[in-house]
Specification:
- This protein has 271 residues and is an alpha+beta fold.
- The protein contains six helices and ten strands.
- Helix 1 (11-32) crosses helix 4 and helix 3 runs antiparallel to helix 4 (113-149).
- It is elongated and about 75 Å long.
Length: 271
């Protein structure tokens, strides 16, 4: 799977993309309307005004909901380039059917289903293709820039990694050897790390998936809510009914390991 920058799946980027689509569609339809036989958006007639507001309301609500779904899919499974294209095409088809349903209520000119479908598909495809292309190209480039900004450096031989918030801003930079574990709490992740023998923590507004990407090869998920620095594990209780790890830092309680991650942790520790 071709991995895309995590920035492209942040709430801020995806919701701004929806806003861009709305603004673009308003401008596009003003230019497109003289050449369309199905165009009816207007604020002059009351029934057309209601149809226009309804169309935009349903479309915006759908697109915002689909972006939430996209973020969840990426967090669970990871979404590559082909997956993003297929997801966007599915959005186009659903918006087409929304447009067709409202058009059939607003206009009663006897146009056949398939004629309306082809005309709507062409119009909606253009409306979404152009802003999506612009937004995704920007998101990809900006995401790569963010990732390059977090590339490890080696001051005094110690490997440094940076952790970003959900907007892509660097919130914390740490030596790999100091990172202990992380706990996901709703829309935040709490990072625990050691400095001068003392355990500190920092709460960052982001997702566990983003933390996994920022700390790839350093931190490993061992539970739905927990991620650990595998190099800090000194004991793994591999009892099927009582799975947990103990880190080599004093004062840290045992960290639970779920059965779905049991083999992963065992394999990493055996290397």
């Amino acid at each position: 799977m071709n991995k895309l920058p995590e920035y492209m799946f942040t709430r801020r980027f995806l919701f701004l993309t929806v806003l861009f689509i709305v603004v673009f569609s308003i401008l596009f339809l003003q230019l497109y309307s003289p050449f369309s036989s199905t165009f009816w958006f207007s604020i002059k007639e009351s029934y057309e005004l209601v149809g226009t507001i309804t169309m935009y309301a349903f479309t915006v609500l759908f697109l915002l909901s689909s972006k939430v779904l996209l973020m969840d899919l990426n967090r669970r499974y990871g979404v590559g380039g082909p997956g993003l294209v297929l997801f966007s095409l599915a959005e186009v088809l659903i918006v087409v059917f929304i447009y067709m349903a409202i058009t059939m209520l607003v206009r009663q000119d006897g146009m056949s289903f398939w004629e309306l479908f082809y005309k709507a598909l062409f119009c909606i495809f253009l409306i979404l293709l152009i802003p999506y292309t612009i937004a995704y190209l920007y998101g990809y480039a900006h995401g790569l820039k963010i990732q390059s900004g977090s590339s490890p450096s080696r001051p005094n031989g110690a490997l440094i990694v940076s952790i970003h918030d959900i907007k892509g801003n660097i919130k914390l930079s740490l030596r790999i050897m100091d990172i202990l574990y992380a706990v996901s709490e709703d829309n935040y992740v709490k990072i625990f790390y050691e400095q001068d023998g003392v355990v500190h923590n920092s709460m960052i507004r982001t997702t566990a998936k983003n933390i996994e990407d920022d700390l790839e090869g350093v931190i490993t998920r061992c539970h739905r809510s927990y991620l650990i620095n595998i190099a800090k594990v000194k004991f793994f209780n591999n009892d099927r009914d009582n799975l947990y790890v103990i880190l080599d830092q004093e004062g840290i309680n045992p960290i639970p390991v779920s059965r779905s991650y049991r083999d992963t942790i065992a394999n990493l520790l055996s290397k």
